[in-house]
Each structure stands twice: as structure tokens, then as C-alpha cells.
Amino acid sequence: MKFLRKTLDGVKPNFEKGGKWEKMYFAFEAIETFLFAPNTTTAAKGVQVRDAVDLKRLMMTVIIAMVPCLLFGMWNIGHQHFLAIGQTGTLGEKFWIGIVQTLPIIVVSYGVGLGIEFVFATIRRHPVNEGFLVTGMLIPLVMPPDVPLWQVAVATAFAVVIGKEAFGGTGMNVVNIALTARAFLYFAYPTDISGEVWTYLGEGATAVAGYSGATPLAVAAAAAKGTQVVNEFNSFGSTWAPGIYSFQSLFLGTQPGSIGETSTLMCLIGALILIVTGTGSWKIIVGVFGGAYGMGLLLNILAGENAFMAMPAYYHLVIGGLAFGAVFMATDPVTAAQTETGKWYYGILIGMFTVLIRVFNPAYPEGIMLAILLMNVFAPLIDYFVVSANKTRRLKRATV
């Protein structure tokens, strides 16, 4: 590390004022502060509180929380591959297939996103924002394993430029950047983010007879059309793969889906890390799960002939990306509600809207994406009403 520090100190004058690469100073500063904690203070005089945690280190905590989802997702890509072709593979073989499929997506996401961040930082003459450290990992985790790399690049560029930089950069964006990228692909290239892209087969490989790479939400959406029964435990998807859509399998994540979203267990491990470190709001996470479960119970009562409505409420908690969205997307400190009471309303409404979108609009079965984006827009309004209510109560007490 001393060698790296000396190297950076040696080239730093070239990037400072008057140096030949002065215009690239903020790009250099981003690399330097990523590797080493800055030694600057906010003022030349007065009491200073020094802390080893800065925004970059905070973002790294979120990335660490996502590692369980990433590792499990890599294994699951290989697992689904061998399941689809009717063969068995070793742990190493499954992981290798997952790495080969996932690593290029991560490289493209970070390459395109950070490249754009550096360009805007150079033009605007401000430090490179750290927010993309998390966004660059979130984008691959919400993509299917077979997504074309050029689409990842286009979606990332759209999300960073239109979703963030157009609003002023990190901390100014209205909606979650990773979900903006996912939504862009969902509406711009719907045929390439649906169908059988959720299971990687490989060149020349064919699926065994009767195999379907449909996600649990796709199976549930088919149920809404009366083609599948889902209201009995373990009958979910049993026509082609008995047991694969059992509650245990869905909780563990051994089914087709986006790279990092399939395992509720891994998401809960990530949630524990975020909550213990104080990085994520437990109120929002609990609110999302509670809102989804409550709406699921209500729909069970009103089910009638709708098979999707009759699906047990607890299934909504483990299918699709609800757990991943609740833990890593809804808790985004920039786009979420800021007041403590508002966080409850924000999370509960996300959970409720997720289930409503899933059940009543099977064309968009992944309701968590649209629900979070919708509530991102209304988060400031929720905070406004919470603050207004607090002011009203205090004024009444003051006049008594």
C-alpha cells in the first residue's frame, strides 16, 4: 500500500492546478479517495470530528450486503443451466458458468456508468459521485443471465444520463437508477427481457423435453388466465417440474429469475447487514413485506374465480424480486421517504402496490419494479404530509 500511496503522490501534481492534466483532476481524485480515505477537513480552524466512514465506505457496505445475492446468483445460473439440459454438474462447474455469464455484465455496467460519471465530473468540474458504486452492482443483479451486453450498456447509459445527471447528479435523482435501467429494457426491448432468457442454455444446447424456463411470476400470471392452479401448497408449477416451485425452493431461490433476485434467504442476509450497520431502514423493509402480505391476505378473501388472487399470501413474499427490491431498492436513501413515520407509509404502499400490479396486470408481473418507481415519485409528498401533521399537532399543544 505504501508503494501505491507513493505512486499516487508522485503523479498528483500533474492533475492539480497548473498541471498538464489539470482538467482530469476530479477523475484522479475519485480514484485516490476510493483507494485511500481523504485527509482533508471541512475547515482550517475549529473542532473537527474525524471518522473513517465516508460516502464511499458507506456504499461499500451496501456492496458487501449484496455479495450473498451475487454469489448465489452465479451458482443458480449454472444450476438452472444443468437442470434445463437434463444433466448434473459439480459445484465448481455451476459457479464457473455463472461467473462467465455474470462478470461481463458487471464489467459493462461499471465501465459505462463510471465512464459517464467521469465525463460529467470533468465537464462540470466537481468530484465524481460515489453513488454508482452501488448502482453498478445493482444493475447486473436485476438483469436476466442471457441479457445482451449491448442492452446493458444502453440501459446503463440511459439510467445514468436521464435518471441522474439530468437532475443534477447523485443525491438529486428522483427515481432509483438501477430500476430505471431495468424499466428501460422492460419497455424498450420487452422480447429480450422475457420468455426464456431467465435460463442460460449455452450455444448449441437444447432444453430437455417439457422444460420451461418460466419464472414463478410468469407461472402465476398464467394462472390468472386459468391455465395453472396455484392455490395449493407445492402445486405451483408442478405440471413440468414437481417441487421446483415449492415454498422452500422459492425461499432458497433455486428457480429461474434475474441474477440476484431469486433467493429470499440471501436478500434477508443482506438486510441483516444493512440494518446492523445502520445503512438501511428496517422500517421500510418490514413495511414492504407487511404491505405485500396484508394485500395478499385481502385478495385471498376476495379471490372468487381468480386463481392468482387465491395464491397463498406468503408466496408473494418469496416470488419475483420483492425481497431484493425491499432490501436494496426501496431503502435507497436518496429516493425513499426521509421521515421516520413516512418510511412506514412508503414501505407499506410499495408492498401493497406490488401485489396489486402482479394480480391485476399480468402483462407486468414483476410488480415490485413499478411499485418502487411509483413510490419514489410520491416519497416527497409523503414526507410533506408527515411533517405538516407534526406541525399541526405541535401547534395544538402550544395553544392549549
Q: Can you walk me through this structure?
A:
By secondary structure, the protein is an all-alpha fold. It folds into two domains: 19-36 and 57-199, no CATH class; 216-255 and 263-400, no CATH class. 59% of the residues lie in helices and 0% in strands. It contains 15 helices and no strands. Helix 5 runs parallel beside helix 7 and helix 14 packs antiparallel against helix 15. The radius of gyration is 23 Å and the shape is globular. Residues 227-234 and 236-242 have low confidence and may be disordered.
Quick summary of this structure?
By secondary structure, this protein is mostly helical. It is built from 15 helices and no strands. The chain has two domains: 19-36 and 57-199, no CATH class; 216-255 and 263-400, no CATH class.
Strand and helix layout:
Blueprint lengths: L1 H10 L13 H11 L19 H31 L5 H34 L7 H10 L7 H15 L13 H12 L27 H9 L22 H6 L11 H13 L5 H20 L5 H4 L11 H8 L10 H21 L6 H33 L1
Helix pairs in contact: 3-4, 3-5, 3-10, 4-5, 4-6, 5-7, 6-7, 7-15, 10-13, 11-13, 11-14, 13-15, 14-15
- What is the makeup of the main sheet? none
Mean pLDDT: 83
Annotation field: number of helices: 15
N/C terminus separation:
64 Å
Query: Helix coverage percent of residues?
Result: 55-70%
List the keywords.
400 residues; 59% helix; 2 domains
